[in-house]
Amino acid sequence: MNRTQLQWQLGKLDNRRLYDLVLCSELEKLRDAKPIVYSHRKASFPIGTTSLDFDSTGQFLLSSGEDGSLALWALDEGHSEGKLVNKRIQFAAGESKESVNPSSRRVHVTARSPGGKAPRFLTSVESRPPDSLQGPREASHAFSVTSVKWYGPDNGLFFTGSNDHKVKIWDTNTFQVASSIDIAHRVAQLDTLGDLLAVASEDSHPRLIDLRSMSAAISLGVKRSDMRHGINAAKFSHTSSGAKPLLLATGDDDGNVRVWDLRMGNRWLCDLTEADTLSKSHARCCNDLCWDPSGSLKLVTTGNDGKCKMWDLHEGGAKPQLVRQLGATDLTSNRFRRRTSHYLMWQGPYVFFNSDHGEILVYQSHSGLLWHAFEYPLRVAQPERLRSTPKLQSMAIQTRLANTLGVRLVLGTDNTHGRILEYRV
Q: Keyword Lipoprotein, does the record have it (predicted)?
């Protein structure tokens, strides 16, 4: 590592290459790590952990459950057997009924006023109802939370989507719902970029919520008659410079992957198709995708055809191209349309794939070869002939190397155990 640092100081390595090399070194150490096991919630029966997300500082983790519950974790704030462990500092139980009528509650997002006691979680905005509409607090979700996402600019807000057709905006400091938006369809996935929130749902058109106007009326592709299938994934592209376009990629139940240019009136840009056959991206349902975190216009998609494919959109308007397939085709590795909103994750030179076989497969993005597999580590008490394969339902990774916490890979199990597994260096 000293040699790598010297090459960086001499200008032979750029910042991105240095980050990738250090991240590779840290992830290599996770191969032999044994997970620390946490419970998403204390219950008489296991609750599957459906979604996980680290905040921008890498110091706080959100987890959600099949029962509509949410938990907030602070990394290394607890002690156990003389070691630092994560501490659950907030918890919200799922609700069977809404405590207020959402249509009677308007929420304003305004600049946070200075003064007063500094909150633990910093935010540049605050979401509150007008004084005339103050009333009972909005309840948590009634059904399984499918996706949790932090507000990108800071950690004072976060968002949740659920099978109860609701997208909710939460104040982190109070851990209470500040706003609820009825999408009228089950929510499959959320993604954020600045003040925009992308919503993938059973609706055939992806939605955008603008936090400045609190409107969910921005639907993409409303004039297209060929969009008749539910949306399973919606992800914003990563930008390394302001000159690159702001893109949103979506995957639907029919295997189509579409790219939208949000700087050109939210217009459709292209469909990803194979050049030789002009066939759609996947022969069956596409249920997740992820962009290259370095800011290039590459993305990886996966679907029920058992394939993980890498695409390159190219800059300058060239036709999208299929670069390679990651790993071999396995129809049994991705069998369910909406088992999880965490099928894919791309960090540094590695792409993580959440297999239906109960393991996380890690592929090298530059070659498509399998690098490592994190297998389901917990034992199942039932006889093998009576049990189904336990699965990992969610995943998140902390890769901020400057916050002294080190790389952390966190996995959430299904309701076989209802646990959160943390792999640390």
A: no
26: containing domain: 1-30
Taking only the tens place, the pLDDT of each residue in 305-363 is: 999 999 999 876 668 899 999 999 999 999 999 999 999 999 989 999 999 999 999 99
Q: How many helices (H) and strands (E) does the chain have?
A: 2, 30
Domain count, the chain: 1
pTM of the model: 0.88
Q: Give the model's pLDDT for residue 316.
A: 60
pLDDT (tens digit per residue) in 135-174: 556 778 999 999 999 998 889 999 999 999 999 999 999 9
For residue 14, tell me if it sits in a domain.
yes
Residue 225, classified by CB atoms within 10 Å of its CB into exposed (0-12), middle (13-18) or buried (19+), is exposed
402 occurs within a structural domain: no
Closest CA to 141 of 96, 174, 189, 186: 96
Angle subtended at Cα 402 by Cα 401 and Cα 405, rounded to the nearest 5 degrees = 70
Return the closest-CA partner of residue 247 out of 174, 288, 298. Answer: 298
Q: Average pLDDT of 222-243?
A: 80
Please indicate, yes or no, if residue 16 is contained in any of the structural domains.
yes
- Which pair of tokens denotes residue 151? 């507000």
**CA pair distance 250, 258, nearest whole angstrom:** 5
DSSP 8-state assignment for residue 23: H
